[in-house]
Design a protein that fits this description.
Blueprint (H helix, E strand, L loop, with lengths): L3 E6 L5 H13 L3 E6 L1 H11 L6 H8 L7 E4 L17 E7 L1 H9 L5 H12 L2 E6 L6 H12 L3 E2 L13 H16 L12
Parallel strand pairs: 1-2, 1-4, 2-3, 4-5, 5-6
Helix pairs in contact: 1-7, 4-6
Length: about 200
C-alpha cells in the first residue's frame, strides 16, 4: 500500500541517514516529501562531498529512478502541501535532527517549513519520529526530548548496534535506518536481526 511520508534533514552530522531513508521509502513505492535546512545542505557538502549548487536538480538527478515519488520543498515555502493539516500524511521523520530543530519543534516555533510540518504532525496526531544526532546531551536537550516523548513523538537516537557484526560504515548507517523503518512499520533487509 502506497503511503505518504515527510523526511526532514537538518544540519546535524549524519545527513546520509536521511538520504538512505529516502532511498528505502521510494524503493517501496511511497511518496516522499523532503525538506532540508540550510545547514543540512552544508553538511551534504562537508560529509558527502556533494556539489549542491543547483539543489533541487541535484536531488532529482540523485533519485532519478524515483523522481515521480519525490517532492522537494523549499525551507520557507509555507504554501507547500505538507504545511497544512488537511494534507494527509502517514508519518514524518527528522533525520538527523539537530538540537536547534528539536527545540523549535518542542516549543511550537514553526520557524520554517520543517518545524511547521512537524507541528502539523503533532496537532493532527500523526506519527513523528526524531533522530537526534548529538553527544553529549545537556539538560535542555533532554528536557525537550522528554516533552516531545510525552506528546507521543518517537525519539530514536542515531545509535547503531553492533550485535550484527558490522563490517563497513554502510552497515552502521543501515542499522539506524533499519530501526527507523521498523518504527514506521516498513519492511526492510538493512541489518541482521538478533537471533536470526
Amino acid at each position: 500500500m502506497k503511503k505518504r511520508y515527510t523526511v526532514g534533514i537538518t544540519g546535524a552530522s549524519g545527513s546520509i541517514y536521511g538520504i538512505r531513508l529516502v532511498e528505502e521509502l521510494v524503493k517501496l513505492g511511497h511518496e516522499v516529501h523532503l525538506v532540508i535546512t540550510e545547514a543540512g545542505w552544508q553538511v551534504f557538502q562537508e560529509e558527502l562531498n556533494w556539489n549542491v549548487d543547483d539543489r533541487e536538480s541535484f536531488l532529482y538527478n540523485y533519485f532519478s529512478s524515483y523522481a515521480e515519488e519525490l517532492h522537494v520543498h523549499s525551507l520557507h515555502d509555507y504554501k507547500a502541501s505538507i504545511a497544512s493539516g488537511s494534507y494527509r500524511s502517514h508519518a514524518m521523520v527528522v533525520v538527523p535532527c539537530s538540537m536547534g530543530t528539536l527545540s523549535g519543534i518542542a516549543t511550537g516555533a514553526s520557524g520554517n517549513l520543517l518545524e511547521r510540518t512537524a507541528d502539523v504532525m503533532l496537532k493532527e496526531g500523526n506519527m513523528l519520529v526524531l533522530v537526534p544526532r548529538e553527544s553529549p546531551f545537556n539538560a535542555i536537550h533532554l528536557e525537550n526530548m522528554l516533552k516531545l516523548a510525552k506528546l507521543g513523538v518517537r525519539i530514536l537516537p542515531a545509535m547503531p548496534g553492533f550485535y550484527h557484526k558490522p563490517q563497513t560504515i554502510d552497515d552502521l548507517i543501515n542499522f539506524v535506518v533499519g530501526k527507523i523503518m521498523d518504527t514506521l512499520g516498513e519492511p526492510h533487509n538493512l541489518f541482521r536481526r538478533w537471533g536470526e
